[in-house]
Design a protein that fits this description.
Length: 241
């Protein structure tokens, strides 16, 4: 992930630079005006731009974002200290991928970048629509410490909800993500991942057997519960009735 910073306040420019480097992304450069931003983008196009709305030069951040959308189609996270409706509505028309208000914390900035990466990854792997508008994504990027680890969807065996978090189990590894079970389901092909319990999603391809007496599903080395509420729906989807 290559990131360009367009910010004319030195304090915030330094803060953005420090966090980008801390998260181990590649910093393309830091500029404070529209002309230098366009020049740098043409020389070395970034994957993401962190941009203040009020910058120096011929164009402000909103106008610059419009130019970028027409010529490069690079996603922009807008950063601003202004909260008025006029500024927000004008900025929204430039279709930023995220909107961050000053002053912001390190964790707010970090999460906005990470959510952007997830969205870009989803868009990059989005094929033509299926009959039921099911979007299939071949892999997910899961944050492990300060890195994003690529996990093939086909390798996921099941997911287990733990409050506001979910554990994602593959045959070899376990991941913890700060997403609800339904948020995880939205990232997965619904034709392949089925809910067996209010806290469990399973990859149908990994099911080896279903114990209808004890309401348990065997997934190779794993075993997950099957609730009465989800049992009938699950069996119908699997054509096992």
């Amino acid at each position: 992930m290559k990131i360009l910073i367009v910010e004319d306040e030195e304090l915030y420019a330094d803060k953005l630079e420090m966090l980008v480097e801390k998260l181990e992304y590649e910093l393309v450069g830091i500029v404070d005006n529209s002309a230098n931003a366009l020049e740098l983008i043409r020389q070395n196009p970034p994957d993401l731009i962190l941009m203040d709305i009020h910058i120096q030069g011929q164009h402000d951040g909103v106008e610059l974002a419009d130019l970028i959308n027409r010529e490069f189609n690079i996603p922009v996270i807008f950063i601003t200290s202004l909260l008025d409706d006029l500024t927000f509505n004008r900025a929204a028309r430039a279709k930023p991928i995220y909107f961050l208000n000053k002053p912001f914390s390190d964790i707010q900035l970090q999460r906005s970048i990470e959510l952007t990466i997830r969205q870009l990854d989803a868009q990059a792997n989005e094929p033509q629509e299926w009959e039921q508008d099911v979007v299939f994504k071949e892999h997910l990027f899961i944050k492990v410490r300060q890195k994003l680890e690529k996990v093939a969807v086909k390798d996921i065996v099941y997911l287990e909800a733990e409050g506001r978090y979910c554990q994602i189990f593959t045959e070899e590894k376990k991941y913890l993500v700060r997403l609800s079970l339904q948020e995880c389901l939205a990232l997965l092909p619904v034709a392949e991942f089925l809910q067996t319990h209010r806290s469990y999603l399973v990859n149908a391809e990994k099911i080896r057997s279903i114990d209808l007496q004890d309401n348990l599903i065997q997934l190779n080395k794993y075993q997950v519960p099957l609730s009465k509420r989800h049992r009938e729906v699950l069996l119908k989807k699997l054509n096992w009735l």
